[in-house]
Amino acid sequence: MAIEPPLAQRPTREQLKARRVYRRALRRARNPLRFSLRSLALVLVLALLTALAVAGLALSLRSESSMPAAEPIIVISAVPDSSLDAPPTEKAALGTQVILAPQTPASLLLTGPPVPTIILTDTPMPLAVGLLAQVVGVGNDELNVRNLPNRNSSAILFRAAGGTKLQLIGGPLEADGFIWWRVRDPQFEVEGWAAGRYLQTITTQTGV
User: Fold this and answer.
1) What CA–CA distance (Å, rounded) separates 144 from 176?
2) Does an H or E element contain 72, and which?
3) Is 17 helix (H, G, I), strand (E, B) or coil?
4) How far apart are CA 69 and CA 90, in angstroms?
5) Is 55 helix (H, G, I), strand (E, B) or coil?
6) Which residues touch 207 (CB under 8 Å, ≥6 apart)?
7) Do strands 96-100 and 73-77 pair parallel, antiparallel, or not at all (unpaired)?
8) No. of helices (H) and no. of strands (E), the chain
9) CA gap 56, 14 in Å, rounded
10) Which residues share a beta bridge with 160?
11) Residue 37 parent element (H or E)
């Protein structure tokens, strides 16, 4: 059975603290290279940050070195331009070469967006009262000319074959999804309403 020392002989809190400080000092004296865990963690963090900075610098240098060299700029001018006159050293620094149009070498390949082909046609004038129009887009059928500007409650007065010339005398009115024009056939002197979809103004207005 253990025998506890008397209360008077038990070490006080100050004595226990002093002993712990003494033991730590004794260990440091025996091994001066020994670091605390806090010091070791700080050293590791600093080393990691340094490694990341070096890696980022290496990647940035590699990306800059892998960039393709800028292609030289060639300016083709019809006449000499004073604004392009510069010493050869400046032209070399800018990477710009000026070539007059008559001196353009045949081996020079010009690149750029394709130029669209423009086809000029006789564009008819929009339909308007007073103009002469002709029937188009009916094929082998004929255009129905009605007494009213609609399809549901109107009657067919006469029919006009493709190419028939009609005088526009009224309109336009919209109904049943069509734009209707009042037309007059000058040959037979009959009038009615026709869908503008099948009418086209004649480019050369020669009158009735």
Assistant:
1) 15
2) none
3) helix
4) 18
5) helix
6) 132
7) parallel
8) 3, 9
9) 53
10) 143
11) helix 37-66
* Alpha carbons 144 and 159: distance in angstroms, whole number: 5
Q: HSE (CB half, 13 Å, CA atoms) of 142?
A: 11
Q: Which residue has the tokens 């070399």?
A: 92
Q: Are 97 and 86 a contacting pair, CB within 8 Å? A: no
In one letter, which amino acid is 7? L
Whole-angstrom distance, CA of residue 171 vs CA of residue 183:
9
Q: Alpha-carbon dihedral of residues 167, 169, 172, 176, nearest 10 degrees?
A: -70
pLDDT by residue for the chain (208 residues), tens only, comes to 555 555 556 778 888 888 888 887 787 777 655 666 777 788 888 999 999 988 888 888 876 666 555 566 666 655 555 544 444 444 444 556 666 656 666 666 666 666 666 555 566 789 999 999 999 999 999 999 999 999 989 999 999 999 999 999 998 999 999 999 999 999 989 999 999 999 999 876 654 4
How many angstroms separate the CA atoms of 54 and 73, rounded?
A: 37
Apex CA 107: angle with CA 102 and CA 109, to 5°?
95
**Which residues have C-beta within 8 Å of that of residue 194, sequence separation ≥ 6?**
135, 143, 144, 145, 146, 160, 166, 180, 181, 183
